[in-house]
Amino acid sequence: MKRAYQRYGIYLLELAIISEIILPFVLAFMYPEFDHITMLISEFGNANEQTKLIFRAWMFINGGLFIASSYAVYRRFYLSNSFYSLILSLSIAVFGVGDCILTSLFETSATGNAHTLSEKIHDMGSAVGFAALLIGVVVLIKLYHIEKQKLLVSIIGVCLFFSLFFMLLYSMKRIPILKAYDLPYRGLWQRLNLIFMYLPYLIMVFESNLNRMKRGNCNE
Hints:
Elements: H1 2-8, H2 11-27, H3 49-77, H4 82-105, H5 117-146, H6 150-171, H7 186-219
Helix pairs in contact: 2-3, 2-7, 3-4, 4-5, 5-6, 5-7, 6-7
């Protein structure tokens, strides 16, 4: 079991990310009022009871997958730099707890303004989770820089730029000096932000698999 995890554990991260991406499209079939362009993913938590139950269970499982994959990610990079490898793995685990598990346990506000303790915990967990995943991308760039993988550093750097750009558009409503310029389509900005934030991790899984295959060929 341990050897299987060491070899395939990193694929749990890929599974979690793909699951996160397809989640809103699957649940939208059960929530006809949902608009992908204007509505946030967390609003499934305020949908009908069936959709809400599936959303919460799905998010809880995704959180578990992120947490379960974190040690495999640590093992991928610990020989390059154990400290940065630890930060990267913790970032993934914190995202799993903050943005997935807490989202599944605590309801979001239907109006977008947190008033109850549950809504505040939801918003805080989501914010911390997003920040952790973003920090993880920065650390991933650092690790690939240490490994002298210039192409991956450049590609992930571009992903980081676009992720920050769409995060700014998504967050304008909550930033006092930018609130007056709040753009519509927060749902769209959230999806694009997530795609560019998840992409570096998918690249990492692909690169790790490629490395493993090369090592396997060399050993034959």
